[in-house]
Write a structure and sequence with these properties.
The complex is a heterodimer of chains A (422) and B (359).
Chain A lengths: L1 H30 L2 H5 L10 H6 L1 H4 L5 H4 L26 H9 L2 H5 L9 H7 L1 H7 L8 H5 L19 H9 L2 H4 L8 H5 L3 H8 L8 H5 L12 H5 L4 H9 L1 H9 L4 H5 L29 H32 L5 H20 L5 H57 L7
Chain B lengths: L1 H11 L2 H10 L1 E3 L8 H21 L9 H10 L4 H28 L8 H23 L4 H15 L5 H9 L6 H33 L5 H9 L6 E3 H26 L25 H9 L3 E2 L2 E2 H17 L1 H7 L3 H26 L2
Antiparallel strand pairs in B: 1-2, 3-4
Helix pairs in contact in B: 3-5, 3-11, 4-5, 5-6, 5-11, 6-9, 7-8, 12-13, 12-15, 14-15
The chains are: A mainly alpha (422), B mainly alpha (359).
Chain lengths: 422, 359
């Protein structure tokens, strides 16, 4: 009897649970009815459950109605009625203001991401994109062109279109499309050039996320080409020491007065290649002789600076080879190996100092490097001399050992001559 | 002068009591006599170890912050420091090699048989002590390879059921390999192990002296059949001078190795760095290390590594008691021992070679 009573209680309990669960499910479904239809529609009206759930806005608790208006708790077309505040498809011309409604509201953004800037819209208005947009050009980029829509991810997500690894690809969708860019009289080879650059290698091949992509130099929301005057400032964000040296150079004033864009004059822009000492030479990669005349005072200084760099580079390689031979002979040269890094640092420093275009400053670094390298070379030579000394010592010791063994052998033979049995 | 000195001692000590047994001691002469030299060469290498070890102690400083630098100083700044350290390292490896060769020669010549069971037992313990010397000494330069090999080695100790963790903590001086492990290993290497080894060497030599050199059974039966064939040589000076020749040759080999292939120092250990690829123990632990690597993670319900450690421990224990099996089951036991020795030697060689070739 007691068992039956217990069983009745359990049935009632489970029935209550099922009712509550059904009610909560219905309630959850009732919260966003948009996906019920839009999940099964064809693009561009399609928004799947998967897209929506991976969207950062959905994850933060926002719904379709946050942008599109309407009342997703209501079923059928009532949810999309004007009475429910439904805005429908957002017109392209409305997008920046619509996004800015929340993203420019500091108080609102603090609730979701207090560290996110709120000046995107105002910056956009200063950008080339924003200015053209304000003139009624709707071909230019608006928020969703770079960030995407429905399935939007934060910039830190590697799948985001604005993650550093994807930015160049995102920009190239328009900027590398010659037919799309036709009316702007703008080159479209930036992306192809960037893909051959040292910056691309650092970012994509080496995975260094601090390496520059389009937005690093051009800005993102306020994207604009750096003017002639600001190129140096853009590059100096990373290349601090080169900038300090350039400040000391006579080139700065000369370039400014000639309206030349600083760093870009010698290094180029999108397709910046790894700089080598050949830039200071007279061969195909040389840059100085584009402006200077052979034999003038600047050409002489160039040749001397290049000579210094070449001398230090060769001295480092020479010491490295000698130390390598010593090391492979089992000699302990780890301290000299460490000092080699200092010599290489001095060479790098001299290459940076080149940006001052002052032979006396470059020479200081080269002399420092040569001093360290001479010490390393001497350490290598000493190690090789020590190796030879050891081998001579070994030879001498082996002679003595051989004589001792031979002497013992002869002594034993003489001692035991005919006597082996005890 | 020498005679006067001899007389001076003779007046005070009964030299005949000391030198008498040496003069009477003889060594059998037969076609396998050269195997007798291996024990002596091992002893010579041990003496080299003691001598060079004392010299290294003059400059070596135990401690995680000083050990590597002090060995580097010995190798680069101390006059002939490189030679002393290289000889110490090479002699250590050669000593373990000759000790193993000595052990297998004793098995194959059946020199362990009655009445020399305790000579064998003392020799086996000496071999284990030599491996202990190797394991503790390997860490002392505090370089990357040694640090991680010690980490792996002590981790394996920690797998021993019941007492494993306690043993590991005892060896490491804590849960991790740190400077405390280094000072602990230094203590084992320069005090505990040399003391025990010296004592056991005296016991081992005393037993060899007491029982004399063993004659291989085949030679023994031949001599028994025709006693006229039996030949002996005096230990002093005949055998000792030959042994001296072997020691000179060993010294020459050591010199060549030390001068042509000085022992590497590597890079200083960084406990926070990830373990480099290709961590390997010293060659004489390789067969065990490789076996433990090859054993499946689970053997039935048991942990594969634990099974491997227990099997090696048990096999080592049986190996020490090997002469007693020869006694217990004559004929069959002898064949069993020979079979086990051939298997052990082949297994050790194969797994060592495989260990160095496997990636």
């Amino acid at each position: 009897m007691a068992t039956w009573r217990n069983s009745g209680f359990l049935r009632a309990f489970f029935l209550a649970l099922v009712v509550c669960a059904s009610a909560s499910t219905l309630s959850a479904q009732a919260e966003n009815t948009c996906l019920l239809c839009h999940g099964s529609l064809d693009p561009p009206l399609q928004v799947t459950e998967q897209q929506f759930s991976s969207d950062i806005y959905s994850q933060k608790g926002l719904t379709c109605a946050s942008c599109h208006g309407g009342d997703p708790t209501k079923a059928d077309m009532e949810a999309m009625s004007k009475a429910a505040g439904f805005r429908g498809k957002i017109l392209r011309t409305q997008i920046p203001e619509l996004c800015g409604r929340c993203h420019s509201d500091g108080a609102f953004m603090r609730k979701y991401n207090p560290s996110l800037r709120t000046d995107q819209l105002s910056q956009y208005k200063t950008s080339v994109h924003g200015k053209l947009f304000a003139k009624g050009d709707t071909k230019v980029a608006v928020c969703i062109d770079c960030h995407g829509v429905h399935g939007l991810r934060p910039a830190s997500d590697t799948r985001s279109k604005v993650h550093p690894l994807n930015v160049a690809q995102t920009c190239s969708r328009c900027h590398a499309d010659a037919s799309y860019m036709k009316e702007y009289a703008f080159p479209t080879d930036q992306f192809a050039q960037y893909n051959t650059s040292v910056h691309h290698d650092a970012l994509v091949v080496r995975g260094d996320l601090s390496a520059p992509t389009c937005t690093t130099c051009h800005g993102n929301h306020g994207a604009a080409p750096p003017g002639v005057d600001s190129v140096q400032n853009v590059c100096s964000k990373c290349h601090v020491f080169q900038d300090q040296m350039y400040e000391k150079s006579t080139h700065k004033a000369a370039f400014q007065s000639a309206g030349l864009p600083g760093c870009v004059v010698c290094h180029g822009n999108h397709g910046i290649s790894h700089p080598t000492d050949a830039k200071l030479g007279t061969g195909p990669q040389a840059v100085c002789m584009r402006c200077h005349k052979t034999g003038d005072v600047c050409d002489q200084a160039r040749a001397e600076m290049l000579g210094g760099l070449t001398q230090l580079g060769e001295a480092i390689n020479n010491a490295h080879n000698v130390l390598g031979v010593a090391e492979s002979s089992g000699m302990e040269v780890s301290q000299a190996r460490l000092d080699e890094d200092q010599a290489r640092d001095a060479l790098t420093k001299a290459r940076v100092t080149i940006h001052s275009f002052r032979k006396d400053l470059v020479d200081q670094d080269i002399q420092e490097g040569l001093k360290i390298t001479a010490k390393n070379l001497q350490a290598g030579k000493n190690a090789l001399a020590e190796r030879d000394y050891r081998r001579r010592g070994l030879g001498l010791a082996l002679i003595f050992i051989f004589l001792a063994v031979a002497g013992l052998f002869l002594y034993i033979r003489r001692m035991e001559h005919g006597v082996t049995d005890a | 002068m020498f005679v006067r000195l001899q007389n001076w001692f003779a007046e005070r000590f009964h030299l005949a009591d000391i030198t008498g047994p040496l003069k009477k001691k003889t060594v059998p002469i037969h076609n396998l006599s050269y195997w007798y030299f291996l024990g002596g060469i091992t002893l010579f290498l041990f003496m080299i170890q003691v001598g060079t070890g004392i010299l290294l102690l003059l400059y070596y400083r135990p401690g995680a912050n000083e050990a590597f630098e002090s060995v580097q100083y010995i190798m680069t700044r101390v006059q002939f420091g490189w030679l002393i350290r290289s000889i110490h390292s090479w002699a250590a490896n050669l000593m373990i090699f000759t000790a193993f060769a000595h052990m297998f020669s004793v098995i194959f010549l059946r020199a362990y048989r009655k009445p020399r069971e305790l000579t064998w037992v003392s020799g086996m313990i000496l071999l284990f002590l030599a491996m202990g010397f190797g394991f503790s000494g390997y860490l002392l330069p505090w370089n990357t390879l040694a640090f991680f090999a010690t980490k792996v080695g002590t981790e394996i100790t920690g797998q021993v059921p019941v007492v494993g963790h306690t043993m590991m903590v005892f060896l490491r001086g804590g849960e991790e390999v740190t400077g405390a492990t280094l000072t602990r290993f230094f203590g084992f290497h320069v005090a505990v192990l040399p003391g025990l080894t010296t004592l056991l060497i005296l016991v081992h030599l005393g037993l060899v002296q007491y029982f004399g050199m063993s004659v291989p059974p085949g030679v023994e039966s031949r001599w028994r059949a025709s006693p006229g064939e039996a030949r002996q040589m005096k230990f002093f000076p005949n055998f000792l001078l030959r042994e001296l020749m072997a020691w000179y040759i060993a010294l020459g080999v050591l010199g060549i190795l030390a001068a042509i292939l000085p022992w590497e120092l590597g890079t200083k250990a960084d406990p926070f760095a990830p373990a480099p690829a290709g961590i390997r123990p010293e060659w004489y632990f390789m067969f065990m290390f490789q076996t433990l690597k090859e054993i499946p993670a689970k053997l039935w319900l048991l942990d594969g590594e634990v099974v491997g450690i227990l099997v090696f421990g048990f096999a080592g224990f049986l190996w020490v008691l090997l002469p007693f099996f020869d006694q217990l089951a004559r004929g069959r036991g002898r064949r069993l021992i020979m079979g086990a020795a051939v298997f052990a030697l082949s297994y050790m060689l194969a797994l060592t070679i495989y260990g160095y070739m496997a990636k």
